Amino acid sequence: MGGMTLFEALGGREGIDKIVEEFYSRVEQDSHMRPIYPQDLEPGKLKLFMEQWTGGGPRYSERYGHPRLRRRHFPFVIDKLAAGKWLRHMRGAMQACNVPGEAQSVIFQSWGPLAHHMVNDDEDVPREPLNDAVLQ
Ligand code: HEM
Question: Which residues face 65 on adjacent strands?
């Protein structure tokens, strides 16, 4: 990636928009994943998070506070299969958008374990919706 930030390697805001849209269209067509997500799919938060995570600026946290991803996923029942599929669809979306292999390996080195850390289907966690809560 030679001095590029991940944000640049992904194609900036425009590249991230495309990746996340590809990702949600894969989720939409997946009969295991679709019911986990709200009726109205809204890619906006994942876009802002990816922008922030890759070094493109803090718009996610300016709006929603600390990501606290595991906590924010409690309202959704996530099993092991869903973690694997999430990763597969994100990988597919990045391939479709021609994200360089080197950038993909950096990202999935973190997101592989992160996705599995999100699994909560056999836990007694609070399932009430958080919606657009600002968390500290
Ligand atoms: C393990 C499988 C996963 C499932 C089934 C899953 C599912 C969901 C669902 C249903 C939502 C709420 C609706 C939405 O905003 O689209 C959501 C939000 C979100 N997910 Fe995931 N997710 C998973 C893994 C991940 C991972 C690995 C990341 C980060 C790399 C991530 C980042 C986010 C973000 C940033 C939001 C918005 C959170 C908020 O501010 O409310 N998710 N996810």
Answer: 135
Residues 6+ apart with CB under 8 A from 93: 19, 20, 22, 23, 26
What confidence tier does 1 reach under pLDDT thresholds 50, 70, 90? confident
Q: Is the pLDDT confidence value at 3 over 90?
A: no
For residue 46, the CA-to-ligand 1 centroid distance in Å is 7
pTM of the model: 0.98
Q: Is the CB of 7 under 6 A from ligand 1?
A: no
What fold does the segment set 7-117 form as a domain? Globin-like (1.10.490)
Is the minimum distance from the CB of 78 to ligand 1 under 6 angstroms? yes
Evaluate: CB of 45 within 6 angstroms of ligand 1: yes
Q: For the chain, give every domain's residue range.
A: 7-117
Residue in the structure block whose two tokens are 């070094």 = 55
Mean pLDDT over 34-51 rounds to 97
Tokens of 105: 């390996």
